DNA sequence: CTGAAAGCGCTTACAG
DNA sequence: CTGAAAGCGCTTACAG
């Protein structure tokens, strides 16, 4: 029976060790760690060096005990999609643990925002992460304001002014995708629009329109069909598009669920994708690669967004009471991921 | 400009408050909190009452600082599916935060188990959560053993003996689903099997066989088709089944991805689901409800499993060095979720 | 079965 | 710009 080694992370170095090594007091080390003012540059350098040499990492428990400030961050979610949620969670968790903050996750049921928010508040959070589409909810924003808590929107390109936000430029991404389709030779591109209560839906449509007009392609209103971001709505939308007297040679769906549905419809009609019809999506969810052929789509760096959102939120919390920062906006790069659902239009 | 209220969770009660209220020392309160021995029952009751009255909750930071035991729990994942992962994450996060443990999440790339594990070890985790199928990896189990770390398998019904595990009874669930199909009137039920390196695959097949034999239905080998849990493999499997001279009236796929593919194939062949063909899955992933018609499937309580796995792991860590507990097994209830992809067989 | 003392590693006032 | 002291809320030996 193998006896378990005692592997307690042997005597991690403390603030005292660093102080001794640098020839200063613990107080000064603390100042350096916390980016405090009033440290001569030479002193600061010596401390930083000592930290490096001793491989020192502050003990978070001691930190929060002493400062009586545990840094609890709330994350409200609404399950738009599991893939999206898990990325938000992964990024948020990673950054929170690095920053020594605790992440408290609450589900927000459709018409019970108040309850979720109250649970969050009573658990003592110092700020809230709001992944889209929750950041577009007026009720939530108002509540946040009343509670006096800072919030950061994730994956929202057009959030309320009261919020700091991080996201991609949805319009630019949709424009890039449309340009890609145009380059392949497509001229009749069907567009499946998202629901009007999602800020992203309008922006994606706008990007599509812009690319078209840039290349001098006249827009044909019959090529725009309304969807609601659900797979089921994509079924109807694609059917409508492919029933047109002059059907499109490519379908650009505003999200992957609807694009996956478009592929299903094409197959049912005996059309090969991408030989007979090109279908592209948006979001790069798990569905994009479970479906056959895998979808060409736009990927948002969701976990990076979440990571950065945590940093921004912590800054906001630490700075508190100061000027109520006027909602910073941060844009991250998207990626066009080309897989196997796109190709040139069929030669007639 | 609304000034932020100072809402620091006003003077939460401490162990001292409780001690005073109960007329004992802080030490005794600590014993009660930690289920320590040597407390007279009457004393314990008084303390519990005081805790209730004062709404006392131990300060985790102080706790881990004092005990120099921060309780870090590692979670290794391998992205089988985002839905599964997010449930594991949600449950694990919830329970860890309740127990004052920190959750450290690491991704384990296909052939780089060693790296992921080393990162986990160097981050100082005290134990590891292993969601299926990672708990079936010999490399990981060996590493865990060498590191002397306790581990708990999640959603595994047939894990290694060295591990504690929590899961559902896959065979019983598959049997229940098959019985359900039989009750609807089906007699020719096609079965799409999972990959042989997944413990669950064999168990699910076994459950299917058992139900059949219980009802005295002869098994027809042509009705068993090999799949690999991917959507793409489901396409081929369903094609094979539906090309049979005497095709099945129902297809039971071992997971939702393959079931979704079966629906796609049926549609492509002009078959209506469920009127002409019943299709059921297993797992209740997001795909089950994005596809049309939504899938009848088996749901595992993944987030509950994850929650309990955390509790078990913490017990294991606290108990350490003691008898190396011989791998407890915990079975949770599954649910058969009936949606719209099943019905009686077509009348001929 | 119960308690008084010391200390975990940091930060917060307060001095200089 | 820097430091000595006290204390955050708990637990760990150690006594009784």
Automatic annotation (TrEMBL), chains A, B:
GO MF annotation: an example: DNA binding
Keywords, alphabetical: DNA-binding
Q: Where is the HTH lacI-type domain?
A: 13-67
Q: Which PROSITE patterns match?
A: HTH_LACI_1, HTH_LACI_2
Its domain of life reads Bacteria
**What protein is this chain from?**
LacI family DNA-binding transcriptional regulator
Q: Which organism is this entry from?
A: Brevundimonas nasdae
Classification of source organism: Bacteria, Pseudomonadati, Pseudomonadota, Alphaproteobacteria, Caulobacterales
């Amino acid at each position: 029976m193998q006896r378990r080694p005692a592997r307690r992370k042997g005597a991690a170095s403390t603030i005292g060790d660093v102080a001794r090594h640098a020839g200063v007091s613990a107080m000064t080390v603390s100042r350096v760690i916390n980016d405090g003012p009033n440290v001569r540059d030479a002193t600061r350098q010596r401390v930083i060096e000592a930290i490096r040499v001793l491989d020192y990492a502050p003990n978070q428990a001691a930190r929060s005990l002493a400062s009586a400030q545990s840094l609890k961050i709330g994350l409200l979610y609404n399950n738009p999609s599991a893939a999206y949620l898990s990325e938000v969670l992964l990024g948020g968790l990673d950054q929170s643990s690095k920053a020594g903050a605790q992440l408290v996750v609450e589900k927000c049921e459709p018409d019970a925002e108040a309850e979720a928010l109250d649970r969050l508040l009573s658990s003592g959070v110092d700020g809230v992460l709001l992944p889209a589409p929750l950041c577009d909810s007026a009720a939530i924003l108002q509540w946040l304001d009343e509670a006096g808590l800072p919030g950061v929107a994730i994956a929202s390109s057009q959030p309320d002014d009261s919020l700091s936000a991080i996201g991609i430029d949805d319009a630019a991404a949709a424009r890039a995708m449309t340009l890609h389709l145009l380059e392949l030779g497509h001229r009749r591109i069907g567009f499946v629009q998202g629901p009007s209560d999602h800020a992203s839906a309008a922006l994606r449509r706008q990007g599509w329109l812009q690319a078209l007009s840039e290349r001098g392609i006249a827009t044909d209103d019959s090529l725009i069909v309304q969807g609601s971001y659900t797979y089921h709505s994509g079924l109807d939308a694609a059917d409508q598009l492919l029933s047109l007297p002059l059907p499109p040679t490519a379908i650009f769906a505003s999200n992957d669920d609807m694009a996956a549905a478009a592929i299903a419809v094409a197959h049912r009609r005996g059309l090969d994708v991408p030989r007979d019809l090109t279908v592209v999506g948006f979001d790069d969810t798990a569905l994009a690669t479970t479906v056959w052929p895998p979808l060409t789509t736009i990927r948002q760096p969701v976990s990076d967004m979440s990571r950065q959102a945590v940093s921004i939120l912590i800054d906001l919390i630490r700075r508190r009471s100061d000027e109520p920062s006027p909602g910073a906006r941060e844009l991250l790069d998207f990626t066009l991921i080309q897989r196997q659902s796109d190709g040139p239009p069929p030669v007639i």
